[in-house]
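MODEL INPUT / OUTPUT PAIR
PAIR INDEX: 1
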Amino acid sequence: MLGPNLTAAARRKTRQVRVGSVLVGADAPISVQSMTTTKTSDVDGTLQQIYALAGAGADIVRCTCNREEAAEGLARIVPRSPVPIIADIHNNHRMALAALDAGVHGLRLNPGNITDPDKIKEVAAAARDRGVSIRIGVNAGSLDSRLYQKYGGATPEALVESARVELAYFEEVGFADVKISVKASYVPLMIEAYRLLADTTDHPLHLGVTEAGPGVAGLIKGTAGIATLLAEGIGDTIRYSLTADPVEDLIACPSCGRAEIDVIAVANAAMAAFGEQEIPLQVAVMGCVVNGPGEARDADLGIAAGRRKGHLFIKGRNVAVIPEDEMVHALVHYAERLLVEGADAVLASSDLEGARKAAEADRAALLDEKGADANASETAVELIRRHLRDGEA
């Protein structure tokens, strides 16, 4: 509790924007973002990472969209993601348009990379029409050369002017659903740029120290910048930019429209059930039996949901059918058996054929009910391909 002579800085008043189901700014809680490190064209690998990040508490996840294959990957990722997805756009404004076709919930544009006003306004107008927010992501390391020369370097004033120039283009087409960041690797520069920006706009601010570095050193550097500003009431959403895996986690399913369970809830329950046990096994929780055992075939042990049952598998082979409400208990039980008896003995004592037939029956029923493309992702992929071909004509 604060003493009589101490006061907390009031949080800066901002307008509010929406990123999918997450509100940013005004009185919304400060949201936490992260970014995948996979190639976005690797749909299942990227979804695996998104689910791990969501399970670790990320509210929003950003994925790179730097080529057509990445945009097509987003079309398959977005409907299966448990959290809103932002597309990180590099040098090609057409990738921003393709990401909008893919159904992303937000875009990140770097003013230092896309500098043509007409292209910037085209993207802003398309986002406006779709109700998708944009983050103006200024970066000291990629500042527009004209501003670098004007200010004699990447100064706080240069970073803020970069953001305001971009914002003016957006305003020309009536687009205002904007977040802004002015990141730098040098913490004092980052802090001063955000302070200046906070004095000149009421748009919500995304805080981060870019290229903070690896491990503990990067964490300390990021915290120094982010925490300083939060203590001053500045900041509405945050991201740590670390040179590291974004999260360690138990394997959880990249879910889809066929998912029969809340994958994250079951994965978290499994982690809690294993507690402090040092069981050297890789455990998978999969949303449905259609692709689950195959996608997690390298896991030592896993379970996939299907028609109010859990299909338990070891090294991709179905070994038992478990009532849905006993899935977590079964994972712990079989993990303990594997440690004591070994995989070969557990497999030998199981009704493999019966488990396989039960899984196949549920798999066929789910495919018949919801189809092979449960999210109509391929329709979005075709739209992306058509628009990109039209743009080349």
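PAIR INDEX: 2
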Amino acid sequence: MYKLRATIIKDIRTLTRDRIGLALMFGMPILLVIIITLIQNNTFELVSKNKSPLLLCNRDTGEASSELIQAIDKIGMFRLLEVSRDLSDKGITDRMHAKDALLAVVIPSDFSSDVSAKTRRLSSKALNTFGLKGDTITAGSGIADPVTLFYHPILQEPFRRSVQGALYSALQLVESRQLLKSIYFSINEKQLPDSLENDILSNKISINEVPVSRDGSRSVPNASQHNVPAWTIFAMFFVVLSLGSGVVREKLNGSFIRLKTLPTNYLVSILSKQVTYLGVTIAQAIVIFTIGVWLFPAMGLPALDLPSDLSGLALVSVLCGWCAVSYAICIGVFARTEEQANGFGAISIVMLAAIGGLMVPSFAMPDSFRTIMKISPLHWCLEAYYGLFLEGGKLKDVLPNLLPLFIIVLVLQFITFAGLKRKNLI
């Protein structure tokens, strides 16, 4: 026990002298969590609080185009920037290239007349179907000029699809209103009352959104709940840059040979490193979680809500940290130079984070990756954290994720032990 305590003190002193390593293990993850959360929080609020600017060129003077503009405005996704009806398509695209807006809608000059002809034709068919005599409509039976949506190429397809769906909804509302007025006038020969029109068009079945949680809570997870646990795991595994290179350094400077001349074993040094750097990973989690709870609200970000099961959170953090330390030591044992340990360690962590769901959500991955991501320890760490932070689960709920993670730790420990034996380090 005395040997282990003395070795831990030595490792702590070595660690405190590595200021660059400490900066990488604490400073970089903190900046990463703040930056990613800021970006994703703005993305979450893009269609709610932060409205996208939309250039609107209305080349029509009829009633239907005015109703369409009102419908687009009521969607709440856009900040409308109306431009002159005489502005050409080239002028519109030039303003988009100047980043005045990334979206533009052009309403054609015959929009109202086309909508009117279409609704009169449909109302006539409907009346004939009902056994009533409808007017015979021949004019305006051709294909109407479409509403044009210009978009900047930097917009990703999912967002473009959501914009397109919103515009279709606005167009559908305008056409439905015009059709309703036409049918009512054909039957009653008078205008549709505004109160009846609003009752018919506003009579929609509401959608009740309920997040699925294990504790019955209906709180909606925010950007902090998604990002802080994920990048805490990333920070833990990045101890490979300090720990892995430290193991290689001891191999190269002959420390293990000197240990063999003393009444001790290199396994004591390995155990000391595990204890010391496990403390580092726990400190990383505490620091990052504290920033999420206390600093994020001061920065205008949503606060991090800690899980109700704090003992479960502690156990998950310890197991994630132990896995990160085991991986780092394994890299250090097999690497021949510090450059190999740092290069392979950093690249492999990024790759494991990518396939593990930290960078791209697991549900968005192709089916071919669903099996591959299960070999990443970061995937099981993330699933365990998400079970606590997002699903409101307890320790018993995340045990199915902790068991594979524990098996990975044992495999890494065995590989490390086999490597030490092979290299005659023990």
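PAIR 2 NOTE: The chain has a mean pLDDT of 81.
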